[in-house]
Amino acid sequence: MTRPLPSDGQQRPAGTQPLSSERERLKVARKWAYLVRRATYIPLPDDEIERRFLGLLDRLLDALCGDQPTESASEVGAELVRLHCVGKTSLQCTVDVLASALLAPTEGRLADRLPERVGKLLGALASGYVDAIRSSIVEQQDTLNQALFAAVRASQHELEASEAQLDEIFVSSPSGIAVTGPDGQFVRTNPALHRILDRTASEVAGGNLYEFAHETDRGLLRDGYRDLRDGKIDRLRSRPRFTTKDGDLSQVTLTASLLREAHGRTGQYVTIVADDAELALLQNRLRHQLLHDLLTGLPNRQFFGTHLEHVLHRSNSATLYHVDLDGLSFVTDGLGRKAGDSLLRTVADRLRSVVAGESAMVARFESDKFGILVERSATGPDAATMVARINETLSEPVYVDGVGLAVTASFGVVEDLSRTAEPAELLRSADLAMRRAKSAGPGRWERYDPVLDVPAREALGLVAAMPGAWESGELAVGYEPLVRLADGELAGVEARLRWEHPELGVLPEQRYLDLAERTALIGPLGAWLVERGWQDKAAGGGADLSLLVPLTPNQLSDPGLAERIRRILDDAALPAERLWLGLPTRALLGTGHEAADNAHVLAELGIGVVLYDFGATPGELVLLEEFPVRAVRLDSRLVWRAVGEESIAVAGADYLIALLRRAGIVVVAGGLETSEQARRWQRAGVELGTGPLLTGDAGPATDLESLIGGGRAGRGY
User: Fold this and answer.
1) Where is this region: Disordered (predicted)?
2) Do 247 and 234 form a contact (C-beta atoms < 8 A)?
3) Does the pLDDT of residue 626 top 80, yes or no?
């Protein structure tokens, strides 16, 4: 396991650039180093490699914020070559990692032009990378050339002894070699030169070097040899164009040295010619890797974004599709990565075939996500027809190792693209529409709708900002009174997450908590909520009151939860039975074992187990036998339906409450909004209640001491 890297001491202000925290930068640097190490051997210890990559990442981040980012990015590309990161996919890995990290949503002065700046930054990095490889190749050629020159000079003094060695060099060298007279006449040539000139040995014999050069380059070439003869230069380096037999032009790198005879008289020239075609092929291959997905050969997100920008400049008659495959994970998890990769290649081919008759581009963004841009025509299909064609094509099985595989796709569609819109913003809109379609079920599609998607965009933005809000103190613990319905007295408090946004004020939990459940932040937040509540209870009085802390499904499934709770209890001189943890019933009834295992360990610590959202799911009664349940909190939908509606569900809840009371289990009604609701459930046997009726419009209080002693307890209803 790699040890943590030391801090560089830099504190990057949040909202001004991507990767503003040290933790994010370390994560990206380690992923970058890991992927590059898989592609090539780097002769350094792992710690040193990660430290170097972290330094390169910091230079790129500084360049991204600077006025001229390309120079520093080019130097980073060259540094990768110096670190021996020259594997087949080193540059592709670098671009994939950096593009994903640097294009993360951000605020501040970078936000408006971030995709353009990142594109320029990565382009400059690739350019520096290619130039460094070119220089490395040239240095290797120079080394070989010097060895050849030394061998040729030695042959002048010991011609007979070195003739066999010189012949071997001439025959086997990949570079063209020619010995010419003072006027450029060929004295001797090798097979590699014949190949470069596209001539046979007989066609070259007796010829002149200058006559094979393009007519516009001959004068410069003659001047160079003359300067070499006159001693103005020690070695001639030139990049003339030679004309092939078919009239095509071939760019070469030419290096010449003068062999002087005795008494300083002018002798012959040794000329070495290297074909630049291989270097050009390397450059083209690197450029292709930079802009295409290696697995499918489709354009990648960067190429697609540039193409989208060009299309927008031409017209707005285009439709953008964000495509997300349904069920690919079942293939990769069940049959292996090889089967998944084979299916992805087939999907790429089929997507291309569906739009083959249109002016369109298909790209692979990442994993199971694709993008399609179709420039509309008078005869082109509408969005519904296009989606139906794609799903019909994808649903046809493809056989991999004898197993028939097929998928469907969910689509987010943006039509009538605005010419003034940013490509990144359009892609983001299509992604939001796709998420809405996917939530409705597989094989669905949705158009981008600002009315529906803007709230989702705002919620996603809030979740993205949660780590910074936690660090800056915007996230706090709020407390709601847990009141006895019989007499209105305070029996305990319920700790809730409270987010006081500097611009939006106190945010309701439903705006961010469900989405936060998908992030890694939610686990530590659960333990922090318990710890802060327990500390506030110890400091704020109310030792006889119970502290109820509700947990989300992912918090309950956190492998480190039980150990964190154990340490919290050990550090505080309060009885464990005063801590009640609200456990979601749907998590305990799920197929995973982590939630149930945590619940058993917590119960063994003496903590009060409270089942949340009870009465909404069949099979919940079995949980009363499996766990030592202290209390249950009725599902809020039952509470809201109680007044004026004696339905089967409400009647069943009354019967359930009676059973729970006979078993000695406390029943809690949450979300109480009216006095009628409170009185109705108190008559049914509910002992404790929470909700707006008891907290008021201000919501949860942030000060437990003021809640206990300030009169918020015991309010009438």
Assistant:
1) 1-22
2) no
3) yes
